[in-house]
Amino acid sequence: MSPPPQKRLKQPSAARSRAPSSAPSSSPSRSRKPPRDLELEAGSSAHYENPAYYRQTYARRTHDVRYYVDLALKRRGPVLEYGCGNGRITLPIARTGVEILGVDLSPPMLGDLKKALREEPADVAQRVTLRRGDMRRVRLDQRFRLVICPFNALLHLYTRADMEAFLARTREHLLPHGQLVFDVSMPEPEELARDPARAYATPRFRYPDASSGSSVVKYTERFDYDKMRQVLFVAMEFSPVNGGESWMTPLAHRQFYPQELEALLHYNGFRITALHGDFSEEPATSSSSTLIYHCKPR
Ligand SMILES: C[S@@+](CC[C@H](N)C(=O)[O-])C[C@H]1O[C@@H](n2cnc3c(N)ncnc32)[C@H](O)[C@@H]1O
Q1: Is 204 helix (H, G, I), strand (E, B) or coil?
Q2: pLDDT of 12 higher than 60
Q3: Is a pLDDT exceeding 70 seen at residue 18?
Q4: Which GO terms describe its biological process (predicted)?
Q5: pLDDT above 50: residue 175
Q6: Contact of 145 with 77, CB cutoff 8 Å
């Protein structure tokens, strides 16, 4: 089995290296551009380097697809999807007849989606426009009835400045009466308290590898929560059972608490019009594991 790209990353003993890779964003700095944080950059990209693995991992996650498709049908598009990935939600929306523009930072995910579009009927493919870009910065020459940011893509916005930029871009791209809808995982205190030294094993599975075929791997996860930055670092460790080098894929998820999100939305010019706790549209409660925000500019 040939090593996937993320294999080049050095495997730390815990979910992340303890050494700070850059100054925290809140530290005073004379330069306008914040310093790069390689740890966070890897945590927002490595998991998306193998689109076949991503597709296989989330193949049974369909409840949110239905939710976003219904929303797109109700709003009738055009839809802007931030963090469209390899089209798990983009494609079903386009198949229902709604125009959608997908923005994503990951070339492998966008490449995979472009490939999938070539297999679609021409009218479906024509409804999809793709842009490689950062949802904090991309400026499009178009406004939308609906802007969506599904399945924790927002958890790759790690700082207040990131969120402010994202919400400013969203406002610029919304038509009057347009709506922003996104979903994030609820922070779970017991999950954030896990010991970073402990490896959590899950069942073995077949890891797809486009270059050398698939092979069965042992899979463990380690979790290391940075309380100051409110970032959960996950180390996903893969070991081929028939020998071969192990590798680790890092993932970094910002933890947003509901009151913090309400304040960020409010002070950036949005009001929450609905807050669901699952994809069957039940209101969010303390026991919800997902938070789905519907917002409008105020
Ligand atoms: C969890 S995936 C969600 C993909 C897709 N929406 C889905 O539901 O399967 C998060 C996506 O956000 C993208 N992403 C992360 N940070 C981003 C940023 N700053 N701007 C645009 N896309 C970003 C990643 O490349 C990845 O494809």
Answers
A1: strand
A2: no
A3: no
A4: methylation
A5: yes
A6: yes
Check the CA dihedral 173-293-280-231 and report its sign.
Answer: positive
Tokens of 135: 């949802």
Contact indicator for 246, 238 with CB cutoff of 8 Å:
yes
**Band of pLDDT at residue 3, cut at 50, 70 and 90:** very low
**Which ligand 1 atom lies nearest to the CA of residue 151?**
8
Ligand 1 pocket, residue 85 CB under 6 Å: yes
Which atom of ligand 1 has the smallest separation from the CA of 109? 27
Contact status, residue 222 vs residue 15, Cβ threshold 8 Å: yes
Q: Could you tell me if 71 and 276 are in contact, meaning their C-beta atoms sit under 8 angstroms apart? A: no
Do 48 and 271 form a contact (C-beta atoms < 8 A)? no
Express each pLDDT in 216-260 by its tens digit: 999 999 999 999 999 999 999 999 998 889 999 999 999 999 999
The answer on pLDDT for 22 being more than 50 is: no
Q: Is 138 left (phi over 0), alpha (psi -120 to 50) or beta?
A: beta
On whether the CB atoms of residues 222 and 198 are closer than 8 A, the answer is: yes
- Ligand 1 centroid to Cα of residue 153, in Å, is 5
**Residue 136 CB less than 6 A away from ligand 1:** yes
**CA separation for the pair 211, 2 (Å, rounded):** 7
Two tokens at 79?
Answer: 């839809």
Instruction: Report residue 209 CA to chain centroid gap.
Output: 22
- The model carries a pTM of 0.91
CB distance 35 to 95 below 8 Å: no
Please, where are the H alpha helices in the chain? 38-43, 51-57, 63-75, 90-95, 107-118, 122-126, 160-173, 189-192, 258-267
Question: Distance from the CA of 150 to the center of ligand 1, in angstroms?
Answer: 8
